[in-house]
């Protein structure tokens, strides 16, 4: 079973491939720009050694993979089309343990050759770093034959899917019998769904399902959504909702076939009796304190960034529990459950190195960069020795040392990326927590005013003259 998708590359890919590696910069042409460098980023990502088993499964069609960036840009310059969409990033994923690396790469090559090989430069890379093998295609947006652009639309995507299914059948692999259209999904949403992580549209769908299940009328459905913090647009062509903390409304019909207004009303009609989920109160946890009182005083109090991260995880419902509880969690925090692995890694880094503020974080980041520079220099000298060496034993030793340096550099890059993520994420976390506090205070103020108005009122609607 192979799933397929394709997206356009317009920028530096910070938004699309946010987990791209940070390799050494390669020589760039004088006419390069931030946009054209984005093409280099996606090519480097597709050919990363840690994903492709030392690049054994990276092949170029109408181009050399090692020089694909320059060749694709030369094509754009030749036809004066270096603006707009730079390339297309295609994806073909196979079911776990269904295909071998050789089979997956062969299918990817045949697919790319059939669809694009006659007119476009393509890099095909098979990634082996997940349980499911998957192919990445980097397709130049401009044809080297006639300079015409490739247009990605429903028709061309249907060709991609049809060709992929046919090739899978030829290699005795399973196919999706009733494929669902994912074309309207953003890359991040589609990827999160593939990895089983929540998306904010998925959270809306989950809330809507629960409210439908507990409603007896459509009016009750709207009222319950509003009680849960949603702003609801009614009286328009398509009913739309906006969750807490979001700027844009979402039309319910875009969540699926079962979420149009008529479909929701039909689902509510099926509720012959109220079917409310019984919520059992959680048993109080006994707090057990062991040791002397002097031992308790030795516990280090969290400060700064460490305190921020622990408080944020607590508000998300992760702490002190080990699983996320979405029941009373604010919508802005619920959607961050998709980044739980990254949040946990950042929290561990802060605690491991006892980093409390931005100054300490920048100092640690600088230390990592210096260590990486030293390792890169040592690895470079080994490459020079390897090129001159003719002794087989020494060659093996050099290769082992180079592999060791590469692994260390990979770990340091990941830690450096965590540091960079903490700097940007911590500000966003503060803003979200501040917004949640503001909303909570506003809600309390409104409730207090409502209570005061109720107390100052007179029975039977009578007021003092």
Automatic annotation (TrEMBL):
Q: Where is the MobA/VirD2-like nuclease domain?
A: 45-173
Q: Where is the composition biased (Basic residues)?
A: 284-296
* Source taxonomy: Bacteria, Bacillati, Bacillota, Clostridia, Eubacteriales
Q: Which InterPro entries match?
A: Endonuclease_MobA/VirD2 (IPR005094)
Compositional bias of type Basic and acidic residues: which residue ranges? 430-454
The segments labelled Disordered in the record are 270-296, 430-465
Enumerate the Pfam families for this protein. Answer: Relaxase
Official protein name in the record: MobA/VirD2-like nuclease domain-containing protein
